[in-house]
What does this fold into?
Amino acid sequence: MQDPPRPATGYPYPYPYPNPQQPPPTNGYPNAATGTAYPYQNHNPYYAPPQPNPRAVIIRRLFIVFMTFLLILGLILFIFFLIARPQLPDVYLNSLSVSNFNVSNNQVSGKWDLQVQFRNPNSKMSLHYDAALCAMYYNRVSLSETRLQPFDQGKKDQTVVNATLSVSGTYVDGRLADSIGKERSVKGSVEFDLRMISYVTFRYGAFRRRRYVTVYCDDVDVGVPVSSGSGKMVGSSKRCKTY
It folds into this structure.
């Protein structure tokens, strides 16, 4: 005898059979296979979206304003320097003489009279010189110093300044005294170095720029033999270096 048929188990196929070209029915619910889902909605009446920090917003805006200001200022200064082109003054040592010059027992005495010419090469800017410090050196050792009176210079102007430096019985190292004596006996002259330091203000309309200017007049040969305590600069006017 044949066993009676067993009932079918599992889920029955819908009738008619589904078309493989069509998506299965969703019975009114969103189909996850097609990318449709319920949008998230917060229905809490006490929920509020986060607000930006007012302090952070203010700081960010101030930073943007500050950077914009710096950019504009830099552009203005760049254009200004292209137009004005500030240049350092030209400095010439016209003359230098020494009198009562004596080196003995590691002591130096003497008096230096000099004339310096300042030239403003700027055609659009005037200059103002603060009280400049003027010093006389030998082998990087300061012998005497003085201050020059402040003065102004117009555009393309020239100014001649006279100064006097003196020293009496100033102690120097024995090697320095021997070097001066040897140079006088061999060459009949001594090479001095002149230094000048000043703050110079560049003026162009309402624009002001103040900077530190240093003047170097090195290896100025002054004829002062051993037999005499007086002498003058050897050669003509000497152009100094400015930084």
Observations:
- The mean pLDDT is 85.
- Helices lie at 54-84, 174-187.
- The first strand starts at residue 90 and ends at 104.
